[in-house]
Amino acid sequence: xxxxxxxxxxxxxxxxxxxSTATVSRVLSNPDLVSKSTRGAVLDAIRETGxxxxxxxxxxxxxRAGAVLILVPxxxxxxxxxxxxxxxxxxxxxxxxxxIADTESNPLQEETLAGYFRDGRIDGAISLDGGIPSTALxxxxxxxxxxxxxxxxxxxxxxxxxxxSSDNAEGARLAIRHLHDLGHKKIAHVTGPDGxxxxxxxxxxxxxxxxxxxxxxxxxxxxxxxxxxxxxHEAARRILAMDERPTAVFCAxxxxxxxxxxxxxxxxxxxxxxxxxxxxxxxxxxxSYVPALTTIRQDRHQLGRRAAEVLLGQLANTxxxxxxxxxxxxxxxxxxxxxxxx
Amino acid sequence: xxxxxxxxxxxxxxxxxxxSTATVSRVLSNPDLVSKSTRGAVLDAIRETGxxxxxxxxxxxxxRAGAVLILVPxxxxxxxxxxxxxxxxxxxxxxxxxxIADTESNPLQEETLAGYFRDGRIDGAISLDGGIPSTALxxxxxxxxxxxxxxxxxxxxxxxxxxxSSDNAEGARLAIRHLHDLGHKKIAHVTGPDGxxxxxxxxxxxxxxxxxxxxxxxxxxxxxxxxxxxxxHEAARRILAMDERPTAVFCAxxxxxxxxxxxxxxxxxxxxxxxxxxxxxxxxxxxSYVPALTTIRQDRHQLGRRAAEVLLGQLANTxxxxxxxxxxxxxxxxxxxxxxxx
DNA sequence: GCCGATTATGTAATCGATTACACTATTTGG
DNA sequence: CCAAATAGTGTAATCGATTACATAATCGGC
Lengths: 342, 342
Hints:
The structure is a homodimer.
Chain A: H1 10-17, H2 21-29, H3 36-49, H4 55-62, E1 67-72, H5 79-92, E2 97-102, H6 112-118, E3 124-127, H7 134-142, E4 149-152, E5 163-166, H8 168-182, E6 187-190, H9 197-212, E7 222-223, H10 229-240, E8 248-251, H11 254-266, E9 276-281, E10 294-297, H12 300-316, E11 325-328, E12 331-333
Parallel strand pairs in A: 1-2, 1-3, 3-4, 4-5, 5-11, 6-7, 6-8, 8-9, 9-10
Antiparallel strand pairs in A: 10-12
Helix pairs in contact in A: 1-2, 1-3, 5-12, 6-7, 8-9, 10-11
Chain A binds a DNA duplex through helix 2 and helix 4.
């Protein structure tokens, strides 16, 4: 039996450094209140004892949960990985634990989110899911959590929570402009699901830019999708059946582009020879897909970091909400799936 | 200003039901010790006050962390989503919070994992990463956490922790047998990265079954990959350059199969016409890929659940470790990417 | 009808931190 | 040189649960 060294408490540190626990606590959380010499002695004692603060005790006393919850629509979508990494990084320095919940596999019950706040299990939340019911959000507000919820990428229309997202409309415009610059005129767009805020923003960008550039618009060139591989494949079927095929397609997500490309290829078309394809997101696979996908890059890592920072700010400021919407820049990444029309 | 109802404590419940806090506590954690009538009164009071136990207080008193950590090699890989869902589900009933860490984006420092245990931030861990250094694991053992670590899918060779995984060798055998049954004789295998336990298990299954069936083996038909799309693509290049091409390829992961297929198609081959392809994992995309991928399905949800159950068992049993290795069955899913050779 | 076992409940210590308040020593201002 | 302000530290209450121990009541056996 090896003996397990039991962790040092603040009492131990106080004893070793010959001060009260109050002073030790102050050294940790408010060093300026303590004289330089005492502070040195305490820090030495901390090093000597290997003391680490017990979060459960601190949380209890401070009436915090010491945790934040991240709501992800579907962990399986590669798009979210970089974002989660960014979020983790953003919270790394803090003493908050990061909980992750998949809202698709574990559909959020109406009162679940508010329940987490009520039970003091979380101090704040970041939602990547724009599909949270308003009623659920209102319940959180009731529990005073209204200023500790941040939306990331997606958001709920009509609710006043801070939102960090990419400049979706600009991304769409960039994609259209790129295709236009290559010489394309007949440009189709595969959208996301109806009712999704990203779908709306990107579609608007498409329509706006297409109008601005004086490009022809046919209603069948706006194809409804749902961000999935399948929907891209379905879009390919539709396009193959069109009398007047577009020469380029901008997809609202990379996954859609993959489905589209394999569908078109299966239908005998060459990419980008016959049809150019542009995606959105720049997920990891996109660079190594065959053909490598031209796409709009979202800085997923940065998005995550920013959301973490905003939430940390809210948690620190005992002050009130700071509702705001910040859009991070996006970038066109030109690869092999787009080329001039022949 | 709406007033925020402050949460009821165990004291409130005690007052309302006219018993001591001790009794209330017992009703919650050890109902049999309390008489039926008192129990009823307490439960009524709990309902009336809307009492929820404060985890921070409970954890402090019980010297637990109330959390478990899941170590995931790369959250971005679609393979992990179902597993995480299963794990969450497994812990749903318990009062453990589930923390998730991505070991690739946030490489685990040597002492980090042990540090989590030492600081009482976690009670247990599930690792999907077989690349944890033995030294780090030994440190955990030092802190008495040796029987609260469970490996899932991957594991560390030579360490005595419980392992839950799929029957990898059997999966490989199934794949080879399937191709053999279709009439293939020249079967290649794209492996995972060297040094990975899954790579080894699957390769052994391939070699074993190929031998058993008396199939020819050429060393160039074992192609080293790394579970990535790129490595599949690279494998395609190699195969295209071979004098004696295999008529079927079994890939150690679906992602590899996707890369392989697109590479082969780009090289002018038809799948499965010229070459049949079988993957491993059955990730979400596989069914909707074009062509739909024949693959070995791992029950990811079940894997996650089992790991959660095993860890919960260890956490409940104050007893000692129960090192064991359990292999869940796998299943062949026949789709469009495999067919008889022509 | 008495004694020990069993059942049901209460009292109070405890987990390990934070912080209001009190106190002393030192500095500042007039 | 004294009152008031400031700086530095300690005492002890507190956060909200669990649980060892004490106590009271009930039961069964002989």
